[in-house]
Amino acid sequence: NKQMPFTDEEVAFKFAMNTINRNSTLLAGSTLTSDIQQIKINDSYEASRAACFQLTLGVAAIVGPSSPRSSPTVQSLCTALTVPNIQTAWNPDQVGDRYSVNLYPDAMMLTQAIIDMVNYYGWTRVTLLYDGDDALIRLQELLKAPARAKMVLKIRKLRREDGEGVLKDSKLDGSNNIIIDVSYEKLPRVLHKALQLGMMTHFYHYIVTSLDLATIDLENYRHGDVNLTAFRLVDNKNPRVQEVLRDWIRVRESSNVISGTIRDGLTTSVALMFDAIYVLVAGLEGSDVGQEISLSKLNCVNRKAWLYGHTVLNYLKIAEIQDGLTGRIKFDSNGQRTKFSLDVMELREAGLTKIGTWNAGEQKALNITDKSLSGSNVTNS
């Protein structure tokens, strides 16, 4: 077969597997093996075919896919054959009776963090710029906010990759409190276009929904006095993250990785994939206590279930990791990650700076500790 370029997530998957296999204290010396299938984004048929092939091999879990449109298909197959499905991306079809856990923070919780920041800054007129219809599902609590509070919300979908049209529209009608929800790949282009249009000044305040703003080069925006706020799940200055990052840089450079945006540190998707394999190990180690777990070659046609799937899934759901690359990992009974912490970041002249935290599941989730410049240039036009 012709070797296709690897994605960062694929390299992270192999990297985590190799790291665990070198650790003799995990899985009682057993070795993890894997099969990786590359599929077209949003192709449910191809996702189904790939998952069915992997199930014939005899697997303890299926990790992925990362596409929100193809993940429900794989999730349904795993449920039918009682094989755990470990997800690392937002899934619009996540329900409690499925055989899955999802390390990606709960979408409703993430949206609440955005709403809390909007309320903290006192915004009453807000513009949402988005690039995909999935955003209208993920951010539905934000879309309901105007009915619950005195807020005017304008919603604008990008018509170009760099968002020029919607940015110009926002500038013309005086919209200056802007939420940007675009893909990680498009985000640098949208920010650069805003700079070209003179929209990176103290008159504007942006909340970026991407959890990876800290890995993008913001050098051109530091001195413009613009208000730029974001959240961060991965702290690249954390000693545990830095330890993994040193090896990750070496592994990534030696791999045939699809070229993409300039990265400074671990992106959220890479860190979540790495953490996912450690969650799998925790589930397998728990399941193996007092009984021997054996894999079965399964068939999508006869739908005969895996005997140990329910046991492994239960241990995955109760797995708790304190020092994950994405912080504490703990699931609710539905396999959702509803307890997690985000760093609140603001752009200062010295760079992107932590000004507080947002802790999911706590009564007072938002805790701003550095108010020296926080929202100092906010206006409400």
Characterization of the model:
The chain contains eleven helices and 13 strands. With 381 residues, it is of the alpha/beta class. Strands 5-4-6-7-8-11-12-13 form an eight-stranded mixed sheet, sandwiched between helices. It has a three-stranded parallel sheet with strand order 1-2-3, with helices on both faces. It has a two-stranded antiparallel sheet with strand order 9-10. The chain starts with 7 loop residues before the first helix and ends in a 13-residue tail after the last strand.
Strand arrangement in the largest pleated sheet: 5-4-6-7-8-11-12-13
List how many beta strands DSSP finds.
Answer: 13
Largest sheet report = 8 strands, mixed
Low-confidence stretches: none
Q: What share of the residues does DSSP label as strand, in percent?
A: 15-25%
Distance from first to last alpha carbon? 57 Å
Supply Rg. 22 Å
- Secondary-structure class: alpha/beta
N-to-C order of helices and strands:
HHEHEEHEHHEHEHEEHHHEEEEE
Shape: globular
Could you give the topology of this structure?
Elements: H1 8-21, H2 44-57, E1 62-63, H3 71-80, E2 85-87, E3 100-102, H4 107-121, E4 125-130, H5 134-138, H6 140-148, E5 152-157, H7 164-172, E6 177-181, H8 187-196, E7 205-208, E8 227-232, H9 239-253, H10 268-287, H11 309-318, E9 320-324, E10 327-330, E11 341-348, E12 351-359, E13 366-368
Parallel strand pairs: 1-2, 2-3, 4-5, 4-6, 6-7, 7-8
Antiparallel strand pairs: 8-11, 9-10, 11-12, 12-13
Helix pairs in contact: 1-10, 2-3, 4-6, 10-11
